[in-house]
Structures are given as C-alpha cells and as structure tokens.
Design goal:
With about 375 residues, this protein is α/β, with parallel strands linked by helices. About 40% of the residues lie in helices and about 10% in strands. The strands form two sheets. Strands 6-5-4-3-2-1-9 form a seven-stranded parallel sheet. It has a two-stranded antiparallel sheet with strand order 7-8. The protein is globular.
C-alpha cells in the first residue's frame, strides 16, 4: 500500500502493536533492512519528544471580527482581563519554564497588537509560534525565530466575506491581498487555510497565489462557530478530492500529508474517529479532564491553555465545543500521538514518519522547515 493512500480494509482491521513491545522495538522490526527509514523515525520522534508546548491567549483584543470565530462566538474575550504588566508576564513565563515548557503557541485575540508581550515569550522560550489574522505584520527584527501561522477562510472572495470585518463591524475588501503584501517571501509564515465546500473553486488559485508569494500553506476546515450551537463541518468528497489534487500539484507549497487531509475532512483515521475521548490537546491541569486522561488515550504532556490573565486555565486548544471541532492542530497531534496505531505494518511506520516530518515542516524554527518529505 502506498503510504499516501487511504488504508484498505485489511489495514483497518490490523491491530496496533502490543503494549508489551516497545515503540522503538516495533519500529526496528517493521523497518527491517530499511535503516534510512528507521533513522528518520528515531530523529523525528526524538525531536517531537523534546518539545513541551502550551498555548496562551496573549490578548483578548482583535482588530477583526471574523464570522465563525470561536473566540468571540463563545465570548472568551469576556472571560478574562488582559494582564498588561510585563513584570507579571515575565514571572508567569518563568513558572512555565519551571514546568519544563519550552514552546509557546500565542493566540488571541490578535498577537501582533501586543508585540511587547510576544517579545517576552521570545526572550524566555526556545520556540514561539503566533496565530495571526495577518492584517498587521509581525516585525522581523527581534522576531526572526517566531513561526507565524496566518489564518485564511474560504479563499477568493469568501475570505473577505468571512474575515474582512473590523472590530467596529465595518466590512472592507482586499484582506488577502494585504496579508500577502505583509508576509511576502517571509520564511516565518505559513497560511492556515480553512477550506469550505462552498469555496472549492477558490482552492487552486489561492494556493497558487500563496506559493507565488514565497509562502507555504496547510489546510484546516472552516467551522461556522456560533453561540447558539456549533455546526460540524460536512464531509464532502469533492472537497477532499480537490485538496488532495492541489496538494499533489503544489508539493513545494502545501504542507499537508494526504493521510492528514483525509482525517481532517472526514474526521476519521484507520483506527477511529476524532473526538474528545481521543483528542490530546486538552489542558493537562484542567480538573474536568481527569476521567479523559485516565481512559488510556494519550494527551500532550504538560500541555495547558491559559486565558489572557495568564492564570485562568482553558478547556483545550480551541473552543471547548468538541461536537463540531475539526481543529487542524488537534487533529494532527491526535495522529502523531497515536504512533502505536500506525505500527502494524512497514507502510504504517512509513506513514507515521511522513506525517510527523510534515507536521514539523509547519514551524519555521523546526529543523524540518523548508524540507520536502518523500512519500511512497
């Protein structure tokens, strides 16, 4: 089986390795004489295990009101008050380092509105990533090591319809064009493209423009988060087919493994369905997760999510409304943390290695950034 294709029925029935066999021994057994594959496995697993990440709502402020944004739909901006004292922020980051956290994901709100706070994380953390709407550029000087994830909804005219709304409610046009100018040829940047079934015709041209701008792109699925109930993204075969085609057409620009794309769109893998009971991206210290953490499915070690007061623990890496979640980072970490479920065949081992290498390509501070992952 080509590792880039969907698992066949036999693979679905195959069981993961026994817990009596270590992951290392299983990988060595499955690699056989392919020492290059085994070395790739060891290298990417070692790097993955060296990262201890947490997520921080660095501010409640934002210069846009994107339609479907979970942060404002569920009033996260009203749940905490921004901690503006840099001395308190420094003390908080020092406590996080004492928890062995070395990687910070900064979201909001809009992190580029508070570069002084971002700078404190840059000073004290080994790895820093921000999630931005792209309307303002993150300065390059002093932020060279920051990985910049840029949100994009729908593509084409849909992006303006869904995102080009100011905090005061004023609609405008040309947001994507402005973002491209802000991050042209910026190796720190990756577009997180939330695709929709209604915008299939936009995908090829949007990805091409990102490539021609000197950037790379990964995929997410747009979810219309609403306070009166979240709608789960529809599983659309046409959307899946187009994403796979575009990823193959632009391999130098698209940072998304075919296995991940299938899991993202369908919500399923060869070993199960994505949901709260298997999602690893929940706050480690959140009391309500005690039962979830005890169910045997892996979670991200020490991972916490904090509100903008840097004290309030949040439920998880996103909205906390699991019934409609198809968050890209959550889905990808689900696949990576389930390494045992892939170690049922040599092709499964190769698929996991490719998934892991592709995941780390997203981050400009990673040794995998700027590389191409062989598949086959």
């Amino acid at each position: 089986m080509n590792s880039a294709t969907a698992p066949d029925a036999g693979a679905r029935r195959a069981k993961s390795i026994s817990h009596s066999e270590s992951i290392e021994k299983a990988a060595a057994r499955l690699a056989g004489d392919d020492q290059a594959l085994l070395q790739r496995f060891r290298a990417v697993r070692s790097f993955s295990r060296s990262i201890r990440a947490s997520e921080y709502h660095i501010t409640n402020a934002c210069n846009l009101r994107c339609r479907g944004c979970w942060f404002f739909a569920f009033e996260f901006d009203k749940g905490t008050k921004d901690e503006t004292r840099l001395s308190e922020l420094r003390a908080f980051i020092d406590r996080e380092r004492a928890r062995h956290i070395n990687a910070a994901l900064l979201i909001g709100g809009e992190p580029t509105l508070v570069p002084d706070r971002v700078a404190e994380f840059v000073e004290r953390m080994e790895y820093v990533t921000i999630s931005t709407n792209g309307l303002r550029s993150l300065p390059r000087h002093g932020f060279e090591r920051v990985s910049v994830g840029i949100t994009l909804f729908g593509g084409g005219d849909l992006d303006d319809q869904l995102r080009a709304v100011t905090a005061g409610g004023h609609e405008f046009t040309g947001l994507f064009d402005s973002v491209l100018r802000n991050y042209r040829n910026d190796r720190r940047a990756i577009f997180n493209y939330a695709v929709t079934a209604s915008g299939i015709e936009n995908i090829d041209d949007t990805v091409r423009r990102i490539r021609d701008n000197g950037n790379v792109v990964t995929f997410n699925v747009y979810t219309d988060y609403r306070a009166d109930g979240t709608r789960e993204p529809s599983t659309d075969q046409r959307l899946l087919d187009e994403l796979l085609r575009v990823a193959e057409t632009y391999p130098d620009a698209v940072v998304a493994h075919p296995y991940y794309v299938r899991a993202l769109v369908t919500g399923r893998s060869s070993f199960g369905r994505f949901g709260y009971d298997v999602c690893p991206s929940i706050s480690w210290d959140y009391p309500a997760h005690a039962k979830r953490r005890a169910n045997g499915n892996p979670t991200l070690p020490l991972f916490n999510v904090y509100g903008a007061d840097f004290g309030t623990l949040q439920f998880c890496c996103t909205s906390g409304h699991c019934e409609g979640c198809r968050d890209s980072q959550a889905v990808q970490t689900w696949l990576l943390m389930a390494v045992r479920s892939f170690l049922n065949s040599p092709s499964g081992l190769r698929t996991w290695v490719e998934l892991a290498e592709t995941y780390w390509r997203q981050f400009s501070w990673s040794p995998y950034a700027g590389t191409l992952v062989g598949r086959g």
